[in-house]
Structures are given as structure tokens and as C-alpha cells.
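Narrative of activities, Objective 1.

The group set out to show that a structural description can be obtained from nothing but a protein's sequence at a throughput compatible with the screening campaign. Below is one input-output pair from the validation batch, recorded exactly as produced.
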Amino acid sequence: MLIANILAQAAVAAAPPAAVPAQPQQGVISYPASFFEGQQASNAAEMLARVPGFNLDTGDNVRGFEGAAGNVLIDGQRPASKSDNLEEILRRVPVSAVERIDIIRGGAPGIDMQGKSVLANVVRKQGASFRGLFAVANNHLWDGRNMHGMRLELSGGDGQRTWETTIRYGYGNDDGGQFGPSVRIAPDGRILRRADYESESDGLQQTITAGYSQPLLGGRLTLNGRAFWDSWKSENTIRYLEPADLATANITSPYDEFETEVGARYNRDFGPRTKLEVVALRSDSDFHRFDLFRQGAVVDDFRNERTYNETIGRAVLKHQRSATLSFEAGGETALNKLDSQSEQFTNGVRQPLPAGDVQVEELRGEAFAKVVWRPAPQWTLDGGLRFEASDISSDGDVVLEKSLSFLKPRLAVAWQPLPSTQLRGRIERVVGQLNFDDFVAGADFEEGTGVTVGNPDLDPEQAWVGEIALEQRFWKSGAVTVTYRHSELTDVIDRGPERAPDGKIFDRPTNIGDGTKDELIVTLQVPTDPLGWKGGILQGELNRRWSEVIDPTTLTKREISRLRPLEWEARYTQDLPQWGASVGVAVFSGWSQTTYRYNSVTDVKLHNAYVTAWVDKRLSPDTILRVEFGNLAERGIRFNTQSYNGDRRTGSLAYTDDRDLTPRTHALCARPKDFRRLARPASPGSREGRGAIRGLRLFQRCGLT
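Output recorded for this entry:
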């Protein structure tokens, strides 16, 4: 039970020197390629993981281009693709192609912070080259299944024109299967049902990406394309032990999705201080899902087919007035269309389903202006004002039209009293995007919640957000950051009841009013060299969350549904350059979350930590073998659902369903890191994603999906 990884990269062996700070007035700290020598990093993603005080944010899965940004630029530009995962893009940049990584904390003139407090800019070496990568991986599961995958990457250019392409496929599983007892308990403690529960989920992802860039009309044109196939199946079996005459229940939930994206970006400089960026994107998605519940003579099935497309146009003009002052203004428009048909059948008879057939169209526009000013070397002010307006219409089972508009100011201030100390503050009005998945009906027979209906008449959640962060860097590559964030929420989106024409009540997303949310985030990176243990790095992150809303059913205070109160992780990596190897261990905390529906409360808990360990061994300058062991602590998951007769305010507790499931250990996860060969060396002075699909968590860590 092993996993092997093959990666090609240049071998390095040296103690990392201190970061080289850029000019103080620029607010930038630069980490040259030499900083990462001896650390066994193979690509830009692994390099960023070792930058003190930086945590990768891959962006949000929202409509539009502006709000989906992550916190990494490449050569000063945000990646042109919106659907291609930012971490995957960074993994395609080998160490040998990186000249330096610039970290911008709190803002800097001429830099669009994308609404982030800390931003990284990966600067690639100038040079023409042909690069190739071939990687294979295999995840061998305890039950004998093999989740294998392959990745092929090619890129090249002549210094002016550049191109790249990727072909990738990979099988993945949802923690390899889950097994355990399931009981239904009456309010007086009697066991009404007792069963053995067995779950198995796996699927296949396939991706093709391509990009091309060349000079055009005094500027530069970049084109990108992506095709993505996603196929997934979940199978669950419930074998009842008590009562003995209760038939076995089987739940099957497969889905298929096909996505495409094509995009273009044009950049042109008008003199040394003024720059223009124009972006156009088009994405399409075709999704099919089928949920089947079968127990004895009872057959329930839910079917959903939907198509979705998004068209984006965006233009930004940037002007740097001086080394301490810059301006930016622009606009963005997006047209989004959703067509969804859902059906529910019981023993072949179609059931009434509110919002089962829905067509939604949203036309949204946004204008914005930003300014960054450094009145003194220790101070940076980053301000902006956005105005967003949208028209939303719905046809089919729900017919409506409405217009929304929001003004969104933002002010961020950074104060750096010492070279290694920075205090950051932010106040901003944030307007969330409506999730089109909330507009349409869905089903979850696995969790026992059955069918839920959609709600196209939602308003976006809004918040006034205040944030303060203190960052302290130490020992050249050590850092600790403490961030506290408070949000005053309006139109919180949670769960509520909806009555069908036949009187049947369904659960659905709905706006439940105002609320608050508080977050405390602590990140830590400690190098062990000053402690006398060479080559080690200890990293950790803790997230503590509090929230409060008024429950729309009981009219009492509670937390927001599905908000996890506490999560943490710790990682230790030990580089052994003398042996061309590195070893590591990572621990991810358990967590809990609660979902409040009008007639039930569901608690989901991962009741111990997830532990994984790995060894990377360089077999040659171009090849690395990785052996990884997953879920060493056999982390389990527990579902506890309290169901009521009627709603939770007027009804009484009917029963409690409890499932305590444990997946098996994954002894090996093979992750090819990067198998790269340079067909010709770069010449000096020339230029060279339940996750993306539900449940592919292990294989994503293998780096192929």
C-alpha cells in the first residue's frame, strides 16, 4: 500500500540566505531563487509554502472576474483563466523558471491588491526554452482499488511568443470508503433502528488546458482555453439489524459535468506610468445528476439537468503618478444564464417540486476606482470605491424580475514601525454573490435530508467588515501573524421552509435577517536552524470563528449553519540535501459544523485529526520519488440528525439518527511532483482544484487533480 511520485527538477543544496528587501518606499520584500536553495521545493507553489507569513488563497468560486481573484500574481499579472485552479497554475512553474518571489504586505503603489492584505508576485526568469513534464501517480487503497493518474505538460517560446499546454487525468476517492454503525433513537432512549452503514465514492477528472501569448499593436495578447470533464459516483448501503424485517436500503448518487472556458487578455503600456488591461472570458457548463434511494418496494429518485454560461468583459486603466502614489479605474460587466430542470419521483409517480424548472438570467455591472498612497515610508493607504448594479430575472416555476445596486467602499491602512513588524487594518463593505446552486432544487438522500427546493428570490448577503492584523517576522524565515476580523451581516443566507401547492413542506435557502461573525486567525512559521536543527520548518494555522443569527423557525439566537467554529493544522518538513531527500508530516484537525433546517438539526463532526506523512527522494537531477501515507490516525466522521414532528418551534423531537463512520488507512499516495527536462537551456536575457469535485481530497493532495 504505497504511493510513488515522479518529478523532474534541478537539484539544489545550500543554506537559504536572508530575503533581500526592495526599496522601503515600495513596500515589497523580495525572496530570490537562492533563498529556496537546499529546501527541496520543486515548483512555485512549494516555494510559496515556504515564504514566511504568506498563506496561499486560491480565490473564490464566484461569478465575475474581480471577486474571484486569489492572492498571487505571475509576472505582475493575475492569471488570465478564471476556472484553472491557481495552485495548479503555480505547480506548472518549476523552480528553475523562478527568478524571485515578491511579497507585498498592506499595499504598494502600482499594485492592485485584489482586496487582499498580503499579495505574492512570482517573477519568472527571462529566457526562451522548451520544457516538458510527465508525472504518474497511484493511490493504493486498503480494499485493493488503485486510484491512478497522469499529467503531461509542455511549454516553450522564442522570447516573444510563448505557449503552454497541459493534459491531465486522475481517478480519486472520498477517503477510500466509510464503514460503521447507524442507529435511530427515540426521545426516550429506545433504539428504533440499528444498522451497518457502508459507503464508497470515487470518480474521474480529465483536463486539457492551453495558452498562447505574443506581442500585438504595441502591447501583448494572451489567449487561454480549458476543457474539463468530471464524473463521480457515490454508493451507500444500509443493512438493518433491528428490526430484522426492515429491507436493506441502497443510495446511489452519480453525476457528470463538462466545462469549457476560453479567454483573452490584452495589456498595453502608454508610457512608463500608464497601463491598460482588457479581459474577455466565456465559460460554459453542462451538469447532469441522478440520486436514487431504494428500500424494499419504495423507490425515490431525483434528477437534475442544468446548463450554465458566463460571459465577462473587463477593462482597467492604471496610472502611477509617482513612486508613492498610484491610481486605478475600470469597469466590468458579466452576463450569467442558468437553465435547470429538476424532477422527483416516488415509485414512478412524479411529485410536486417547487422551483423545479427554473431559468435565471443575471446582467451585472461594476465600476471601480482605487488609489494607493505612501505618505511616509512606514505608512501605506489603500482605498477604493465600487458601485455594483444587477438585473435578475427568472422564468419557469418562479417568475420574477428585480434590480439590485450596492456601493462598496474600502480602506486599508498598513503601518510598519520596524522592518520586521507590520500592523494592518481594514474596513470594507462586502457584498456576497448569489449562488446559482441555491436557485435550483437538490437532493441528499445520503444525509437523510431528502429533497430541498431552490429559491431564485434571494438577496445577496452583505457585511461591513473590520479587520486588524499584526505580523512579526523573525530569524530570517520565521513569522507569526495574528488577524482578528468582525463582520456585521445583513440578509444572511441560511435555511428556511417552503410549502408546495399540495401542502408538503420543503427545506430551501432563504434570507433570515441580520447577524454577526467574528474570526481569529493565527499563522506561524518557525525555522529550526536557529535552534540547532538544520533544515527543518514548522508551520501551523488556527482558525476560530463565532457567529450569531436569529433562527427563522424558533426565533432564538444560534450560529450560522455550516460555519465551523474551530479548525487548525500543523506541518513539519525536514530537508536532507546531503541525501537529496526531504521528509514531512502534516496534521489536520477534526472539525464540526451544524445545519439548521426548519424540521431538523444535523451535526457533522470529524472526531479526530487527519495525519499524513511523506518522503521525497531525488533519484536523479530530473526525477523524484514520493512515498506518502494518508489517514494514519484513521480519522472518522459522525453524522447526528435530530428530526422533529413539524417545525422545531411547535413540533416535538421524533427521533435522532446517528452514524459513526471510519475510513481505512491509505498506506500510500503516489504524487509525481514535477518530471521536467529542458530540451535547451534558457539563454541569459531572454524570456521563457468533496473539493474541485466532491471527495477527491486525497488525490488533490497528490497533485494530479
